[in-house]
Amino acid sequence: MTQTVEVADIEKTHKNAIAELVQTACKFESHIEIESEGKNINAKSLMGIMAFGLKKGMEVSISAKGTDEKAAVDCISQFLTSNAECAM
Fold first, then answer.
1. Most-buried pick from 10, 48, 58, 79 (CB within 10 A)?
2. Is-above-0.85 flag for pTM?
3. What is the C-alpha separation between 44 and 24, in angstroms, rounded?
4. What CA–CA distance (Å, rounded) separates 26 from 21?
5. Residue limits of the HPr domain (predicted)?
6. What torsion do the CA atoms of 2, 30, 40, 83 make, to the nearest 10 degrees?
7. Among residues 3, 8, 14, 81, which one is catalytic?
């Protein structure tokens, strides 16, 4: 499952947006990847997300493969676009 979104200003509403994003991704069993501009990283990797350089206005594709892939993509998408935490 894959979804493309435009990243909102996640730093504005989260004290540590990168760590919170990784923690959110780690709640899911599925393998989750974020891709943009030829870079593809594991959403559960803190160092990977830091190096990825997420920023407001960036268009990213979120993909997941596994038993809870739809919920994972929906949740990460919600986090990146509306700065909200998803309910699991």
1. 79
2. yes
3. 8
4. 9
5. 1-88
6. 70
7. 14
